[in-house]
Design brief:
Blueprint: H1 9-24, H2 35-48, H3 55-76, H4 86-99, H5 104-123
Helix pairs in contact: 1-2, 2-3, 3-5
């Protein structure tokens, strides 16, 4: 998960990014328009609220959101959080479902991470509308894997 006796790699990356944001900020509130920096702010908030989520859950959020950020930059060429919309989310979930073959339960985990992230960014007033608010995934179901 990380280095021996130290912080997990993702956690040290988040802390370095948050420190960079703090150095250039004149406000006491962390603000950024870059998607990856917003993700680091979100993760840092959760790391500071001890005992709400486990470190494993926060790490899973980071992995989902980091993968989303990377996909945005590669496929959609978007780095500004204000340019995200529901169409981007639909394309991303289509990519995860069709190309990466994510299971429905995995897609729901990604959706939960994104929903909490966007809710936090709206609360911080970094975005005007939450693109995940009315978004529901419709993943294909495997007819041989139906629970009765």
């Amino acid at each position: 998960m990380g280095r021996k006796g130290g912080l997990p790699t993702w956690q040290s990356q988040v802390e370095k990014t948050v420190q960079r944001i703090k150095k250039r900020s004149t406000s006491r509130f962390l603000k950024s328009r870059d998607v990856y920096e917003c993700i680091c702010i979100f993760i840092s908030d959760h790391l500071n609220k001890k005992y709400i989520f486990s470190l494993g859950t926060i790490g899973l959020y980071y992995r989902h959101l980091h993968r989303f950020s990377g996909w945005l930059q590669e496929s959609e060429h978007i780095s500004d959080i204000r340019r995200l919309n529901t169409a981007c989310l639909r394309k991303y979930f289509s990519y995860l479902d069709r190309e990466r073959n994510y299971r429905k339960s995995s897609l729901e985990g990604v959706q939960t991470s994104l929903m909490r992230f966007f809710r936090s960014m709206k609360h911080r007033r970094l975005i005007k509308t939450n693109p995940c608010k009315d978004f529901h995934i419709s993943a294909r179901r495997d007819p041989t894997n139906v629970y009765i």
